[in-house]
Specification:
single chain; 115 residues; mainly beta; seven-stranded mixed beta sheet; four-stranded antiparallel beta sheet; 11 strands; 50% strand; globular
């Protein structure tokens, strides 16, 4: 079972960033995928989750209107897109399978917002 994320991204404020998480080794539609992030010196922040079976997503209130999760069942990949990024969005972004405790995690994707 693996979750493999896309590589590091650098963005300027006000732009968008999209990170992918490709799942393998299990039935993709059987588990939610969560997105979390960890900013420098901070704990993990849950961003929300998506059900790959029907594409329905639930977002943390902090990110409402600025984040979108999508799932592609043809490639077993989920995506998070964050719009209107700010310096505060600099963090390592993780996908994680299922419910707590998340037993499978992606390796993390560094997103850096810089001018």
């Amino acid at each position: 079972i693996q979750l493999v994320q896309s590589g590091a991204e650098v963005r300027t404020p006000g732009t968008s960033v999209k990170v992918s998480c490709k799942a393998s080794g299990y039935t993709f539609t059987s588990y939610f995928i969560n997105w979390l992030r960890q900013a420098p010196g901070q704990g993990f922040e849950w961003m929300g989750r998506i059900d790959p079976e029907d594409g329905k997503a639930k977002y943390a209130e902090t990110f409402q209107g600025r984040v979108a999760f999508t799932a592609d069942t043809s490639t077993n990949t989920v995506y998070v897109e964050l719009t209107r990024v700010t310096f505060n969005d600099t963090a390592v972004y993780y996908c994680a399978r299922g419910g707590k405790p998340y037993e499978r995690w992606g390796q993390g994707t560094q997103v850096t917002v810089t001018s």
